[in-house]
Every structure is written in structure tokens, then in C-alpha cells.
Backbone:
């Protein structure tokens, strides 16, 4: 980074930025090399301010929420990593339909539980999903036959070239675990979103969330992971294919294709991103050779590879 840009960052974001910070403490897999600059934002306003400044200064940046569904390289990330802790929430329980407006750093688990306490249904699936609302909007996160697209009404976006805009859900062109934002790599940050819900019985909603959580604990492995590694191919499951390829429990270094669920890759301590990356390559190659299926990553690779 140029000395003038670094000096400007230090002056503008004093007290909110750190330098040469390992990202392993900011990802669910506990993996990741250092970021040149780590910048913390605590509101949608701070997020918009930071993005606008960095774009204007031509300083590259990566936005991280909960740090799930990402694999950060051992070499780390050049430029700035913005840690999104914008978590403002407003619940409109008496609106028709009832709605939640939340900033993009809000965790899905928190949103689901807040809705449940108000007797609002529609986010039960989200109680078990790691990550933030911004990541869910970006990638159409989902579980247990529920997904972000089903509840989303609109999203507040900040574009590098076109400023702040509010998009209705249909403009995001949602598909399975993807959106136009994810596919096009438009320079944009997600500031907040509005979700429509339905009135329901709080006890029934909580019971459904508890059932989903029990299934999640029973079927998915404990330990540090990235979440689901690959998208499920049409009519099949990535985990089934990897298991049928004989790769369940396969290890490289301290990284393992989980013996409990083959679409989860586990960090058993001090795991290198390169080891996880090697397991990804092994799974893809073996499944392609045995079944003719090309597995598509659900996670994203971040940093220098």
C-alpha cells in the first residue's frame, strides 16, 4: 500500500483499524493469513463511510461478516479487510405483513430468535445457519427448505459508481445459493435489508427452531469448519458423492473431510488454508473421475492464492 494511502487511513480511521492482523480469528474455520489492514465498522453508516473512502482512495478491500463460507489464503489479504459488525435491527410486528429491517452485519441466528420472540414466522431455518444477513442476501443462504429469497423484500445497496440504491428482491435474480451480486462481482456493499414475515405462535416457532437445531447437531460435525463446501448438484448431494468416492475421513495435514458429513471440511488445529485447498482439489478430481460430476464451490476463496 502506498505510504500516502496508509497515512490517510490511519488519520481517518484512528481507533478502528489494526495493521498486519491474522484473519484466523475472524473466520469460522479459524484459518487465514494476515490482512494488511483490519477495519471494524459498527453501523450501516460506518460501513458506507468506509466503502466510499476506500473506493475513492483506490484501496482494495474485502468485506467479512461472520467469516463463514470463506477460505482465506495463508498469504493473507493485501489492502483492507472490513469487518462488518453493523447490527441495527427494527422489528415492525404490527405492520402488514410484519417485517424486520436489519443491518447487514446482523447474524442470522439473532434475527431468527428476535423474530420468534415476537411471534413472527418465516426465519426458523435461519436459526441454524452461521453468518450474517449481508452474506445471506449476497449468496441466497438457506437450510431446511427455507432460503433468503423467500422472505426478502428489498435490500439497501451502496455502489461504487452509482451511489446508494434500494433494490426489490426480484432485481437480485436469485437462484440456488447465488444472486446477480455474486455472479457479476459488481463493486457494491450490502448495507441493510427488509424481510417480510408471518404472524405465528411463539411456542410453535421456537419448537420448530429447536427441531432444526437438533437435526443440525445430529447430522453435521462439530469443530471449526467453513460450512458446506460444495453446492449440491441437481438431483444429488455433494456430501453423498464425496462419501461414495471413498473420501470420508481423508486428511491432509490437520485438515479433514469430515467422517460425520463429507461436505464439511474440518480444521483440527493449526490447519493451513493450503491443506483445505488441497482437499478441495482432491474431492473435485475424484468425484469427477468416478461420477462425471463437477462439484461447484459454495464457499469463496479470499486472498492471494
Residues:
Amino acid at each position: 500500500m502506498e505510504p500516502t494511502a496508509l497515512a490517510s487511513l490511519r488519520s481517518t480511521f484512528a481507533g478502528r483499524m489494526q495493521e498486519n492482523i491474522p484473519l484466523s480469528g475472524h473466520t469460522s474455520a479459524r484459518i487465514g493469513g494476515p490482512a494488511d489492514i483490519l477495519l471494524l465498522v459498527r453501523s450501516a453508516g460506518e460501513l458506507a463511510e468506509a466503502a466510499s473512502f476506500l473506493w475513492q482512495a483506490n484501496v482494495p478491500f474485502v468485506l467479512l461478516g461472520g467469516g463463514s463460507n470463506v477460505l482465506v489464503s495463508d498469504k493473507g489479504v493485501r489492502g483492507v479487510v472490513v469487518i462488518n459488525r453493523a447490527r441495527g435491527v427494527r422489528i415492525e410486528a404490527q405492520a402488514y405483513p410484519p417485517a424486520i429491517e436489519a443491518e447487514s452485519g446482523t447474524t442470522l441466528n439473532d434475527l431468527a430468535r428476535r423474530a420468534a420472540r415476537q411471534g413472527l414466522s418465516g426465519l426458523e431455518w435461519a436459526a441454524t445457519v452461521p453468518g450474517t444477513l449481508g452474506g445471506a442476501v449476497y449468496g441466497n443462504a438457506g437450510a431446511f427448505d427455507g432460503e433468503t429469497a423467500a422472505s426478502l423484500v428489498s435490500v439497501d445497496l451502496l455502489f461504487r459508481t452509482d451511489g446508494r440504491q434500494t433494490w426489490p428482491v426480484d432485481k437480485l435474480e436469485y437462484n440456488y445459493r447465488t444472486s446477480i451480486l455474486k455472479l457479476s462481482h459488481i463493486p457494491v456493499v450490502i448495507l441493510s435489508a427488509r424481510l417480510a414475515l408471518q404472524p405465528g405462535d411463539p411456542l410453535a416457532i421456537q419448537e420448530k427452531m429447536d427441531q432444526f437445531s437438533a437435526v443440525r447437531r445430529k447430522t453435521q460435525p462439530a469443530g471449526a469448519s467453513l460450512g458446506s463446501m460444495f453446492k449440491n448438484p441437481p438431483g444429488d448431494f455433494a456430501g453423498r458423492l464425496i462419501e461414495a468416492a471413498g473420501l470420508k475421513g481423508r486428511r491432509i495435514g490437520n485438515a479433514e473431510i469430515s467422517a460425520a458429513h463429507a461436505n464439511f471440511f474440518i480444521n483440527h488445529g493449526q490447519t493451513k488454508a493450503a491443506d483445505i485447498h488441497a482437499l478441495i482439489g482432491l474431492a473435485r478430481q475424484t468425484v469427477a473421475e468416478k461420477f462425471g460430476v463437477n462439484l461447484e464451490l459454495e464457499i469463496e476463496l479470499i486472498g492471494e492464492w
